[in-house]
Amino acid sequence: QHERAQATRFEPAQTSDGHRIEIAANINRVADASVAAAAGAEGVGLMRTEFLFLERDSAPSEEEQFEAYRDMVQAMAGHSVIIRTLDIGGDKVVPYLDLPKEDNSFLGIRGIRLCLARPELFIPQLRAIYRAAAFGPLKIMFPMIATLEDWYAARDLAEQVRRELDAPQVPLGIMVEVPSAAVLAEQFAQEVDFFSIGTNDLTQYTLAMDRLHPQLASQADGLHPAVLRMIDLTAHAANAHNKWVGVCGGIAADARGSLILVGLGVHELSVSVPAIAELKAAIRQHSLADLQALAQRALACRSAAEVHQL
Ligand code: PEP
Ligand code: MG
């Protein structure tokens, strides 16, 4: 079975009734891009740029970042790359940034909040991304968007940088990983170019369970119906406004989770590279109609255990 999946890894993931799902890769390093393409990825659904900033003594320069983003886009040979802007804070600590210690770092100055507070960090990254856009299709995605004000501020800064460079526009989207963004998905869908649902943080914040807490690990389940309803709200709003919606959190690679996500109407699943071939093979075994019925039953469940039983 494993070998059959590998042999068909460059073929699309299409349900038995002909509905195609894009399968993309989550990558952390530039060198991962060519590995992802060779593994059958149809794009990069999440490039975690914070990894360029970790394990060093100072932030990478605009030039260094430009070269990294350019190399990645070129390695994907025409497939699109979603570059997520810096998502530092929470569990990701960077000593040289001198971030104040916070009692609740997952609820503090992380992700887009940090970038908006530190334009000297954010602007060089945006410049590097817009310059790299000349070398292949890329999209910019902002992490930890909680309010429309977050979005307006991030979008306006990106637009200002783009104009200064006289660069063409690229699609601008948001991670949906904070419950407020899912609840207001209808409003966000009128504004953004695309959504990507981050189920790791969305689970953490919906269930109020620290994603790193060992005693909560088994309960912090992305298949919990409360989380699935957040995803449903988001996918609904996206489809109603003809906006593209992907999922880049861990349940996209889960054998059960991925099928429910397809049934909820997402367009793309972005997963770690080793999961790509098997995920494509799994989707080919089902019809969209069956997965839609499965998703509706999952939404009606009262607990994660009931969803797993399904
Ligand atoms: C997520 O939160 O689901 C996600 C994909 O981003 P990260 O795991 O980097 O927070
Ligand atoms: Mg996240």
Automatic annotation (TrEMBL):
Please state what the protein is called. Multiphosphoryl transfer protein
Superkingdom is Bacteria
Q: Where in the cell is it found?
A: Cytoplasm
Give the source lineage, highest ranks first: Bacteria, Bacillati, Chloroflexota, Chloroflexia, Herpetosiphonales
Keywords, ordered alphabetically: Cytoplasm, Kinase, Magnesium, Metal-binding, Phosphoprotein, Phosphotransferase system, Sugar transport, Transferase, Transport
Could you say which protein family the record assigns here? Belongs to the PEP-utilizing enzyme family.
Which GO biological process categories is it annotated with? phosphoenolpyruvate-dependent sugar phosphotransferase system
Q: Name one GO cellular component term.
A: cytoplasm
Q: GO MF terms on file? A: kinase activity; metal ion binding; phosphoenolpyruvate-protein phosphotransferase activity
Function (record text): The phosphoenolpyruvate-dependent sugar phosphotransferase system (sugar PTS), a major carbohydrate active transport system, catalyzes the phosphorylation of incoming sugar substrates concomitantly with their translocation across the cell membrane. The enzyme II FruAB PTS system is involved in fructose transport.
